[in-house]
Amino acid sequence: MKIAILPGDGIGPEIVAQALRVVEVLRGEGLAVTTESAPMGGAGHDAAGDPLPEATLALARSADAILMGAVGGPKYDTLPREKRPEQGLLRLRKDLALFANLRPAILYPELAAASTLKPEVVAGLDIVIVRELTGDIYFGQPRGRRKNAAGDDEGFDTMHYSVPEIERIARVGFEAARKRGKKLCSVDKANVLDTSILWRETVTRLAAQYPEVALSHMYVDNAAMQLVRNPKQFDVIVTGNMFGDILSDEASMLAGSIGMLPSASLDARQKGLYEPIHGSAPDLAGRDQANPLATILSLAMLFRYSLARADVGDRIEAAVRKVLAQGHRTGDIALPGEQVIGTRAMGDAVVAALRDS
Ligand code: NAD
pTM score, two decimals? Predict the structure, then answer.
């Protein structure tokens, strides 16, 4: 099993280093996993004049899975668009055909007070949003600006999904639900949009192949409301690109800190790019203050989804739960008065918990 490691910029190298220490522990126990690092984003630009250097892309293609830190930073903000760090990430996603974005929103009971919602509403929250990433109104043609019949300027975009596109993302949703709480909620706007009517028909038809998963449907406006009213009713949500963009950001806030949330972007064969949902946090870079747990939890997802080692993923997640239960807190998840530890000390705590498990 080979993991490509792309630390990126800002806090990326610091948080990825802690995830690599977790890999070291597993390797020490005999797990056959190798890692190889390459520059990406601003670091790619510095090393090779390209945010996605050819050698980095070749490594990503050859690996079984990719772990990334984050890219970007003020130093690169004035570069021409094609040289910007985020362009490297977009190209990588496109090249690897990563069409399914999985974002868990988990609120560990110990962090319930860090959420903006009442603890009883969110404590123990554990949901996954599966968002389609390469289609929908964000990519649909035609799009643009024109004059309408009245001579007014207007903008227009095109929403569309084909049956194969809906089927492949729905399968990811059903598979994720099958491995978890066996409930899948498909979110659409079938009361208004033709695209959504086809979406709902297609997901419903596919459900016959997953008899162990209970499928429900919800309109996106209701889903936005239910996520803050009673988020624990959900297990896995599957939805299109635009609805998923909005709902996954909403759900991430339920879980308190951005420093806790992992993500996966998968292709049709479960190969994936795993990264924390946060950015490169230039304000914290080099200060040993960033929370490495989102990156370590991304590594847990990597083992579960791309390397078919759910047992290893479970162990890593259990180690994270344990350090939180022990009271270890980086600045972003500490309540006033709680003792704050640094990035490396949080890594130490996870490594110790993993060794004990
Ligand atoms: P950000 O996510 O980097 O930071 C937002 C806030 O969250 C900051 O206050 C930061 O200190 C805090 N934060 C982020 N990660 C944290 C962690 N692990 N522990 C503790 N606190 C954390 O977003 P931003 O400031 O808008 O963007 C900074 C740079 O990151 C920009 O260049 C942006 O383009 C880039 N970015 C990259 C990605 C990615 O690589 N996928 C995603 C978003 C933003």
Answer: 0.90
